[in-house]
Design brief:
alpha+beta, outer membrane lipoprotein receptor (LolB), chain A, 3 helices, 45% strand, globular
Length: 194
């Protein structure tokens, strides 16, 4: 009888769906830019970099600069194609950034979903497995596509709460991101003011 009740509880809990998320103003952002720091650790390696990310609709430019001249990486792309340029003048192309990062850098980095997560919203391609809101109705924890995301701090940018510090983790790597500067709807221009 106890076993039956346990199975029933597990089955019923699997049928319960998550309540709908409240509207998150950051989901309306179409153009933004950020500067920050990223630290990635896995069983085989650890590295840090400065991050510069500019997004205009589906078109983006993501630059990673490693400290002390250890290298740089530039991803430029949209929904159809991504180009990666490395510090040693090598160029790679793929249909999406996730595949490119995995193939070239052997790094499981969810750039496609990160475009949304970094703004404190779930990626629209799949429903979140779980989430928890803080007292201000902002995401505190998010579980989506095999990743666990924790938002530690938000900052108000032109009336929109955007993450300032976040952690991402899956079975193989841990990622820490600290955002030093946000710009909403920056003027369209190529490159970054570094």
């Amino acid at each position: 009888m106890k076993r039956f009740l346990l199975i029933l509880v597990v089955f019923l809990s699997a049928c319960v769906s998550l309540p709908k998320l409240p509207p998150l103003p950051a989901s309306q952002l179409d153009a933004w830019r950020l500067k920050g720091r990223i630290a990635i650790s896995s069983d085989s390696e650890n590295w840090t970099a400065s991050v510069y990310w500019q997004q205009q609709g589906s078109t983006y430019q993501l630059r990673l600069n490693m400290p002390l001249g250890q290298g740089a990486l530039l991803l430029e792309g949209d929904e159809k194609e991504v180009i990666m340029r490395t510090a040693d003048n090598k160029t790679y192309k793929a249909a999406n950034a996730d595949a490119l990062m995995a193939d070239v850098l052997k790094l499981d980095m969810p750039v496609t979903d990160l475009r949304f997560w970094i703004r404190g919203i779930p990626a629209p391609q799949s429903a979140p497995d779980r989430y928890l809101l803080n007292d201000k109705k902002q995401l505190r924890h998010l579980q989506q596509d095999g990743w666990f995301i924790t938002y530690l701090h938000y900052v108000n940018v032109e009336g929109i709460a955007l993450p300032k510090k976040m952690f991402l983790e899956n079975q193989s790597i841990k990622v820490k991101i600290a955002i030093l500067e946000w710009a909403i709807n920056p003027a369209k221009h190529a490159g970054y003011d570094q």
